[in-house]
Design goal:
single chain; about 140 residues; alpha+beta; Aminopeptidase; about 35% strand; binds coenzyme A
């Protein structure tokens, strides 16, 4: 069974292994678990599948003068060995739930055109691609 929970200090080592997988190659050098855990505007969600760390996503909130409180999603990833089982969709749904609780007006994210699976996932959740290349989901 999958759960979606807050980041804990001990998660870093496992997450770094996932960030380094060939299909992701995320640069994790700025990943500061203490700062992330302390930052109430940065919601770091760890995916646990049957007790194993299986992925990550983060949701950052900030205020834009003409849009009010908005959210941004960064660093979505599922461990290669757990893909295709609904965990990516699950963590995105968790973030949309948090976005609604926090009453943001919209969620933005960007995604490299090469990331076909991710882009299909975002579109299936109702994100619309804008001329700027941003994927946006209106919440309000
Ligand atoms: C994108 C990613 C997070 C999806 O995670 P996942 O757990 O495998 O996704 P799910 O099983 O929840 O699938 C959700 C949807 O994604 C899309 N999808 C998933 N795998 C896909 C594939 N191989 N090809 C095309 N679409 C795919 C589908 O729309 C799928 O919905 P469906 O099952 O109803 O058809 C994962 O592939 C990943 O970590 N990729 C590498 C890192 C990355 O690209 N991150 C996003 C950066 S913007």
């Amino acid at each position: 069974m999958a759960i979606y929970r807050k980041l804990e200090k001990e998660d870093k080592e496992k997450l770094v292994g996932i960030f380094q997988q060939p299909s992701a190659m995320y640069d994790y050098r700025e990943f500061d678990e203490d700062a992330l855990i302390a930052d109430e505007n940065c919601n770091c969600i760890v995916i646990e599948n049957d007790g194993e760390i299986a992925g990550f996503a983060s949701f950052i909130t900030y205020r834009v003068p003409t849009k009010g409180l908005v959210g941004r999603i960064e660093d979505v990833i599922v461990d290669e060995k757990y893909r295709g089982q609904g965990l990516g969709r699950g963590v995105m749904e968790k973030i949309i739930e948090i976005a609604k609780e926090k009453k943001v007006s919209l969620i933005d994210l960007t995604s490299n055109p090469k990331r076909a699976a991710a882009r299909k996932l975002y579109e299936s959740l109702g994100f619309e691609i804008h001329d700027t290349g941003v994927f946006r989901l209106k919440i309000k």
